[in-house]
Specification:
4 helices, two-stranded antiparallel sheet, 34% helix, single chain, globular
Length: 154
């Protein structure tokens, strides 16, 4: 069900859904989404993708850290960034992070479990929207930034 949606609003909803869990883990969620970033997408399919990125950031970030949720226009694209302060990913993990059943070397900070499917499904959904998804380690360390980029409509 494609419609015109604001990715910044998707981030606000994601923050609201994940705030309690982040607070329980002693993690602050910070939102940087001032300007609307309109895209043509299925919100019901895209929101779980953003939830997965935030969920992973919370899983792997240490107590006392801040996770930044950012939405911004980058040329003709709208981009969501989820910036955490976790351990980042080694080169082997970066090569496999969006593959099905990928078991990566980093471990969640509170023993949470993972099926290894979340990011593979996220990649598939984003690509079905004509977008791209990726990640890079923060420089300077620590942490990683996971991003989603979709064509803007306005």
């Amino acid at each position: 069900h494609l419609a015109s949606i604001d990715l910044c609003e998707v981030l606000r909803s994601t923050l609201d859904r994940n705030l309690s869990w982040a607070t329980q883990k002693g993690i602050v969620l910070r939102l940087d989404a001032d300007q609307p970033c309109m895209v043509h997408a299925d919100r019901a399919r895209l929101e779980p993708v953003v939830d997965k990125l935030v969920d992973n950031a919370i899983k792997y970030s240490p107590v006392g850290s801040t996770i930044l949720l950012r939405c911004q226009a980058v040329g003709d694209r709208a981009q969501i960034d989820v910036v955490d302060k976790g351990p980042g990913l080694c080169a082997d993990d970066r090569a496999r992070v969006f593959q099905s059943y990928a078991r990566l070397s980093a471990r969640p900070t509170a023993g949470e479990i993972s099926s290894g499917l979340g990011l593979a499904i996220a990649r598939e959904i984003v690509e079905l929207h004509g977008g791209s998804i990726g990640m890079f380690n923060n420089d300077p360390a620590p942490g990683a930034t996971f991003w989603i980029s979709l064509k803007r409509t306005a």
